[in-house]
């Protein structure tokens, strides 16, 4: 039979072996911070509000009795944002707190020494905290444009929402939202307008152009007219090419011009020559009578022949052309000046050099016309002109320029010894494009 007392001892033993564990648990509850401080590299939870760095390290010592050596005079000038972490090592907490401050730490025994990174750079046992400046970045820009119209006034508002990351840690990201509303511009509503670009209208320029015109001829003396005939000239067409270059300043401009001008006119000649319509006498025989007194009388037997009337008409048409190379000076003044339009008056003078001639002129003998020779035309002549023009700006550096001129020539187109005296007056219309450098 079993002894009942033998079962009691093991039961008591099983109840008493929990007593040491309960005692250790009670000690842990009474001093948790002291036990963590004495353990090797413990995991801690730490939080601090925004303060200076020296205050944060002092709180770390107060909570966990961690020995941290630092210069209070230096760290009191460094302010950190609020910080919070859970279950991190002491080294990780110190690295987070010192991030971006330019300081690092070195563990000597059970003590952490805080120094500047430059002082710890050559120490292989030191932990240098990388210097990271607070980064500001626009992550989600949002733009809203609002147009407000009141009466004839338009106000345009532009709202921009900027999300800025002020400071980023491993465990905490602080974000600030900033919204700015600006009045971009305020204008008076004037209806539909052409969006003219910004133009350049001063400085050096060139103007290539073409010109068409109509001439008028003035005669100092009456044109020589043949007997039973007429000679006349009719203006036809004057055309030319030109290139102006100069400098413009505000309303005034001036420069040089070179061009080619061709003067064309019709030469008309009509003349009628009559011959005949008379009798021609012819002697058929001759005899004489001798008188007693010694005189002799001659007698002629005559016959007459009628020459009929002959009419010859001369009619001639030709297109005469005189070609000139022109070199001159000009000046303009803008009497109307707007942002994209201007009107101006222009005056100039030029010397015209003869470079070619074709056509016919009247002559004294049949067929009463002959080709124009170089010796009959004046080789140079002087002309001057005045006119009006406008300019529309069609591009940043380009103007479209129509002009109208009245030009007069000094002297006759032909030489003085040639009786064909003819002075020219000319209306011409010019189209050009001005380019500003």
Characterize the structure shown.
- It is a single chain.
- This protein is mainly beta.
- Helices cover 14% and strands 58% of the residues.
- The protein has 7 helices and 22 strands.
- The chain has helices spanning 5-16, 19-30, 32-38, 53-64, 72-75, 90-98, 117-120; strands spanning 43-48, 51-52, 67-69, 79-80, 83-89, 103-108, 111-116, 142-150, 153-168, 173-188, 203-218, 229-249, 252-275, 278-290, 296-307, 310-337, 341-358, 360-362, 369-371, 380-393, 398-410, 423-436.
- The protein has an 8-stranded antiparallel beta barrel.
- A hairpin with a 5-residue loop joins strand 14 (278-290) and strand 15 (296-307).
The ordered string of helix (H) and strand (E) elements is HHHEEHEHEEHEEHEEEEEEEEEEEEEEE
Strand count: 22
Q: Helix share of residues?
A: 10-25%
Number of helices: 7
Oligomer: single chain
Mean pLDDT over all positions:
77
Strand content bin: over 45%
Gross geometry: rod-shaped
Side-by-side strand order of the widest sheet: 11-12-13-16-17-20-21-22
Low-confidence stretches: 1-16, 27-39, 136-142, 165-173
Largest sheet: 8 strands, antiparallel, barrel
Structural class: mainly beta
State the end-to-end distance.
130 Å
If you compute it from the alpha carbons, what radius of gyration comes out, rounded to the nearest whole angstrom?
58 Å
